[in-house]
Amino acid sequence: MKIEVGSVINELRIKQNLTREELAKDICETNALSDYERSITSPTIDELALFADKLKVDMPYFYQK
Q1: Does the pTM of the predicted model rise above 0.85?
Q2: Any idea where the HTH cro/C1-type domain is (predicted)?
């Protein structure tokens, strides 16, 4: 089973009423976040840790779906 980390990021971002620009700020470029959410590319482990912090989840949350 392939885990789509990007779809989890997208789901959390929308639930928290954040724009891509707001979530990407100080982490990555907005277009990179868009690529992550569409599973075109994957975030680095460092970026994932920053997303987890900003989205108020533990990193394992991204892999539970």
Answers
A1: yes
A2: 9-62
Average pLDDT for runs of 10 along the chain of length 65? 84 98 98 96 96 97 83
Concatenate the DSSP letters of all residues of the chain into one string.
----HHHHHHHHHHHTT--HHHHHTTTS-HHHHHHHHTTSS---HHHHHHHHHHHT--GGGGG--
Superfamily of domain 5-63 in the CATH hierarchy = lambda repressor-like DNA-binding domains (1.10.260.40)
